[in-house]
Design goal:
Number of domains of chain B: 2
CATH class of the largest domain in chain B: Mainly Alpha
CATH architecture of the domain at 478-615 in chain C: Up-down Bundle
Strand content of chain B: 5-15%
Strand order of the largest sheet of chain C: 6-2-1-10-18
Radius of gyration of chain B: 20 Å
Helix content of chain B: 25-40%
Distance between the termini of chain C: 38 Å
Structural class of chain B: alpha+beta
Shape of chain B: elongated
Number of helices of chain B: 9
Distance between the termini of chain B: 58 Å
Number of strands of chain B: 7
Order of helices and strands of chain B: EEHEEEEEHHHHHHHH
Chains: A mainly alpha (200), B alpha+beta (244), C alpha+beta (639)
Oligomer: heterotrimer
CATH topology of the domain at 478-615 in chain C: Methane Monooxygenase Hydroxylase, Chain G, domain 1
């Protein structure tokens, strides 16, 4: 869970970096990168690994969650008021939202490339720009990225803890970095969508 | 002061339980929570009714017998204490108090607020020991232990096995409980020798008896009456990886 | 008295145990597997014995009334555990530990047993350390010690204020190891209802499954009682509220003599009673007297806050009366001195039944951190209970019933007067005389369980190897079970109005008032009448709802209280009979002009072992004369 999670945590900034090119008025750099990503053999391998990781993360997450639900067949009437990190309680739900988004995401891009959905796979720049002109798409996109932030905030710290890395000095620092990461990354993605929607 | 108690009543492990409301008119803020229940039970017995069954023994916060889920918290809303030390001065006049048993699949209800915590014993039996026979020990001071490590081992060792961590965890996970024992021994040279076997056996048993998984929410740490830290869980994870 | 044979080995004191072990009969490993042993109780003594016997290869069945062996009341011992390691180079030795215990016990303990307890104390520390008990350590990595009351050396090993917990969890872990190996079978949530005696030998027990109410028969070649003390006779005590005397009392009624029942230790430092509903008094470890000073105002009824009372108006009464030992006098002495001040009207707090235990000077001298390191959890606990911060204000403390030196009479082998029935730990009477020194209960209980009983029991079992598995269908099992069930039915069918606890509370008050820290003939006689009246009322007006075939907490309590009535009667008789003051037993009629205990060695240098003569008949007294070959009986002075 944690290892897959960390892999995904590392992948996200790369994705953001590429997406930032959408902000350029010239579609070339983005489309070039998109083309490179779609054709370079090493990336192909990476793609499979990435997909595998996502699947492991999802299925393992669901499996663990089912076990956890089974471990408490009868709940409390007075609720659970323990002081915990708020976001940690909803990982399965924030995770599920992200999964929904991923499916949508795949429809928009990956499936185009596979020819399952109509669209020009050579010009994702335009696909993206036109998508972000739809207000509803933006709303969904923004909500998903807020929830992604919630997910990442707990995920970042939690991965370290699960890997057995807990330290008197480093752990508080990890938590600060987690907070920064969980704000900056989704904010970056959101920035792109809002900019394309309202200012282009 | 007056209190409205909503207490889980369940005749035995097979019957269905439900909440029963009791009104207590004459609660003194000087009572402990268990003494308040004693007073309720006195009334019930005098009226020839079945008293509320709950586990309790030392009443000084060390045996780990007592434990009930009070208004959304194991051992009640005050941190770092057991139910027997919970004073009624922390409650308001007229307050409604929900009292529930620990809820977890490996902790089935036996009666009312009493649950079966033998799953904890099973985990300890699986490996929570250092294998040394009486008489086989070397001279105590021949085993030197760094003061810091010894103090850390002590901080882990003070777990009273009450089950509050499981009760508080949204996943009903027993990781804090198991990690306390693992960490105590992991930090001592005496305990290192069979560290691999110990962590494997205890974790295996923990999964077997049906506790949930740790998702690092930290509820256990927040509710532990002995303030055992989740850094022990990180150490347990580390020990577990090392044992592969 | 022919009936009492203490079986003390010959030879010089220091060699008795070595010699005994060298000549004791043994059971070969193959035969051990065929022998069953029942151990009742899972405190340091019981769990220690069960695991040691399991290690040796016996078939052990172990019982406790708690839901897990880890909760036995040894867990609550705070201050520490003694051993004669002499790590401090302060002149300690086995002999000195032995001497301190004999003197601390006011010369009413058996020399040979005490010496042996001191002898095995070092093995106990070695064993606990190997089991991973995190005792306090110095920076060099060696074990640290502190001093305790009644001694002038530093020999107490400790784990903050939770030594009992740590030792018990260590013992629980060794018990678990044997459970895993299959050598010990654990029966938690069982209460022993009676002992089964066949042809004069202990052969099993009748137990009640506290969850289902089922009555069970368990047989064995030997039975070991490690069921602790009976301090809960006072209702309010430092003991766990479910601690009880029933197992020992039932064994007594089956023929085991009960020794020195009136020797009950009142601990000087417990959190005072705060209200009438209180169910329990919480101990504040004696170790606090290392750094805390006990005082009361010099003026009667001075109601100023403690911190407003200037130094010259404080009476540090222990330091004043006992300059040599000061605040570290033994428990009985400290308790009585406190009671004397409070009775004279100098007590503090709402009730006047409390004195100050002040850490101001130590905090000033050593710093708050040093005090926190030593007593952190105790200070926290005090604050939790009272809402007062002892770093800022002195603690308020008062004596409370704590430990019973009396118990089942045992010989050198820890066997009672019933062959095959052993009593270990607090359940027996053997090592503490009339007063126990601090930190020696963990030591004795562990020593008995881990190192002494496993050696002595083979002497008996060696002759049992030809005895096949004991059947539980014999007439003796039938009869004992029938009697036990009858008694439960009797309790449940009274159908009166009052709860068992309310009777217990009233009995406790009688005992505390007339048979507590200070006793006199008039009060004791009055107590006998009061106990008897209350007992009659109990059997007429008790109410136990529910049935015997289910989890029934009131039934459990009722059975225990019923036994307390019988035990307290004997206890008062013993106190009446002992016309001297010694240790914790202080008879007002027998004191020196300056208020110290006055022993009468001519007439009372004996162990009073009481034989049960039957329902309604007076107990028969047997005297085991105490011969002191090694030490000279002296006036116990801590001045």
């Amino acid at each position: 869970m944690a290892l897959a999670g960390i892999f995904l945590l590392l992948f996200l900034p790369v994705h953001l970096g590429i997406n930032l090119m959408l902000l350029k008025t010239d579609p070339k750099p983005f489309n070039n990168v998109a083309h490179f990503m779609a054709t370079f053999p090493l990336i192909k391998i990476f793609e499979v690994v990435l997909l595998g990781t996502i699947l492991i993360h999802i299925f393992y997450g669901i499996w663990v969650q089912i076990q956890n639900w089974l471990a408490r067949p009868v709940g409390y009437v007075s609720g659970n008021k323990a002081e915990t990190s708020f976001f940690s309680k909803f990982m399965i739900w924030t995770g599920a939202t992200i999964l929904t988004f991923l499916i949508l995401h795949f429809f928009n891009f990956y499936f185009i490339r596979l020819g399952l959905v109509p669209g020009n796979p050579e010009d994702f720049y335009s696909v993206a720009h036109s998508l972000f002109k739809i207000p509803a798409y933006n709303y969904i996109y923004l909500i998903c990225f807020v929830l992604l932030g919630f997910h990442l905030y707990h995920a970042f710290y939690s991965a370290f803890q699960t890997l057995g890395l807990n330290h008197r000095i480093w752990t508080p620092l990890v938590k600060v970095i987690a907070l920064i990461y969980a704000i900056v990354l989704p904010a970056g993605f959101a920035l792109i969508s809002v900019t394309l929607w309202l200012f282009r | 002061m007056k209190l409205i108690l909503k207490i889980w009543r369940q005749k035995n492990s097979k019957s269905k339980g439900s909440f029963v409301t009791y009104i207590m008119d004459d609660v003194s803020p000087e009572m402990s929570f268990l003494e308040m229940l004693d007073a309720l039970n006195k009334k019930l017995v005098e009226a020839d009714k079945d008293p509320v069954a709950f586990d309790h023994d030392c009443r000084e916060g060390i045996c780990g017998s007592c434990g009930m889920y009070i208004n959304g918290h194991p051992h009640g809303p005050v941190p770092a204490i057991t139910t027997c030390h919970l004073s009624m001065r922390y409650f308001k006049d007229g307050e409604t108090i929900w009292i529930e048993p620990w809820r977890a699949k490996p902790f089935p209800v036996i009666k009312d607020l009493i649950v079966d915590r033998s799953a904890f014993d099973k985990i300890q039996i699986a490996g929570g020991f250092i294998s040394v026979n009486a008489g086989a020990a070397p001279e105590a001071n021949s085993i030197l232990v760094q003061k810091k490590k010894s103090d850390d081992a002590f901080d882990s060792s003070i777990c009273i096995g009450c089950g509050a961590c499981v009760a508080a965890c949204k996943n009903a996970s027993a990781m804090l409980f198991v990690s306390a024992k693992i960490s105590q021994f992991a930090r001592l040279p005496q305990g290192r020798i069979e560290a691999r076997e110990r962590v494997r056996a205890m974790v295996k048993k923990m999964d077997e008896v049906g506790f949930g998984n740790c998702s690092n929410t930290g509820a256990c740490e927040a509710e532990c009456p002995k303030q055992i830290k989740i850094k022990n869980i990180a150490l347990l994870n580390r020990e577990f990886y090392k044992a592969f | 008295m022919a009936k009492l044979n203490s079986k003390i080995p010959d030879g010089p004191l220091a060699q008795k145990w070595t010699k005994y072990k060298a000549s004791v009969k043994l059971v070969n490993p193959a035969n051990k597997k065929k022998l069953d042993i029942i151990v009742v109780g899972t405190g340091l003594a019981g769990a220690g014995a069960a695991s040691s016997l399991g290690e040796l290869g016996y078939n052990v069945k172990c019982f406790c009334y708690q839901d897990s062996p880890r909760r036995a009341h040894s867990v609550a011992a705070q201050g520490g555990i003694n051993a004669a390691k002499n790590y401090q180079n302060d002149g300690d030795s086995t002999y000195r530990l032995f001497y301190d215990m004999i003197k601390g016990g006011d010369y009413r303990a058996r020399e040979a047993n005490v010496y042996r307890a001191a002898e095995v104390s070092n093995d106990v520390i070695d064993h606990f350390t190997a089991l991973g008990v995190p005792f306090a350590r110095d920076y060099g990595g060696t074990l640290d010690t502190r001093s305790f009351g009644g001694v002038q050396v530093s020999r107490t090993f400790y784990a903050k204020g939770q030594t009992g917990q740590q030792c018990l969890l260590g013992t629980y872990s060794s018990l678990n190891r044997q459970i895993k190996k299959g050598n010990v079978k654990m029966f938690p949530r069982r209460e022993m209802l009676d002992l089964v005696v066949i042809d004069g030998k202990a052969r099993g027990i009748i137990a009640r499954n506290l969850i289902t109410g089922e009555i069970e028969r368990h047989s064995a070649h030997a039975v070991v009682l490690a069921t602790g003390g009976y301090g809960t006779i006072y209702y309010l005590s430092t003991l766990a509220v479910n601690s009880n005397a029933s197992a020992a009392w039932k064994a007594h009624k089956k023929g085991a003599f009960f020794a020195n029942p009136s020797f009950v230790q009142i601990h000087p430092t417990s959190v005072p009673q705060l209200n009438e509903f209180q169910s329990k008094l919480t101990l504040m470890s004696e170790s606090l007297r290392n750094d805390g000073r006990m005082w009361v105002p010099k003026t009667k009824g001075d109601k100023r806050p403690a911190n407003d009372i200037p130094e010259e108006e404080r009476d540090y009464y222990l330091e004043r009366r006992y300059p040599a030992f000061g605040n570290l006098v033994p428990r009985d002495v400290a308790s009585r001195a406190t009671k004397e001040r409070c009775d004279a009207g100098f007590g503090v707090g709402k009730t006047g039944l409390a004195v100050n235990l002040d850490f101001r000077d130590s905090i000033n001298k050593q710093g708050k951190k040093a005090i926190e390191d030593k007593y952190g959890n105790l200070f926290e606990m005090y604050k939790t209970i009272t809402g007062v911060d002892p770093y800022e204000e002195p603690m308020r403390i008062y004596p409370a019933g704590h430990y019973t030196m009396g118990g089942l009479w045992v010989d050198y082998e820890l066997m009672t007067t019933i062959p095959g029935l052993y009593a270990i730990g607090e359940a027996n009477f053997s090592d503490h005389g009339a007063n126990r020194l601090g930190a020696s209960s963990l030591m004795q209980a562990s020593g008995d369980g881990y190192f002494i009983l496993p050696n002595t029991i083979s002497n008996y079992l060696a002759d049992e190897i030809r005895v096949p598995k004991i059947s539980t269908t014999s007439p003796e099992f039938e009869k004992t079970e029938k009697t036990a069930v009858e008694r439960l039915n009797n309790l449940i069918s009274i159908k009166g109005k009052q709860t068992a606890s309310s009777f217990h509370k009233r009995l406790g008050k009688i005992m505390w008032d007339y048979c507590g820290m200070v006793r006199n003939e008039e009060g004791l006689r009055k107590a006998l009448v009061l106990i008897n009246d209350l007992k009659d009322e109990f059997w007429k007006d008790l109410n136990v709802p529910g049935t015997i075939n289910e989890l029934n907490i009131e039934l459990e309590k009722a059975g225990r209280v019923a036994d307390f009535f019988e035990l307290t009667e004997l206890l008062v008789h013993d106190a009446l009979d002992r016309k001297e003051s010694c240790g914790a037993h202080f008879r007002e009629e027998y004191q020196t002009p300056d208020g110290e205990a006055q022993r009468n060695d001519e007439q009372f240098a004996y162990v009073a072992a009481w034989e049960y003569a039957g329902e309604g008949k007076p107990h028969i007294l047997h005297k085991e004369e105490l011969k002191f070959e090694e030490v000279e009986m002296k006036v116990r002075s801590y001045k």
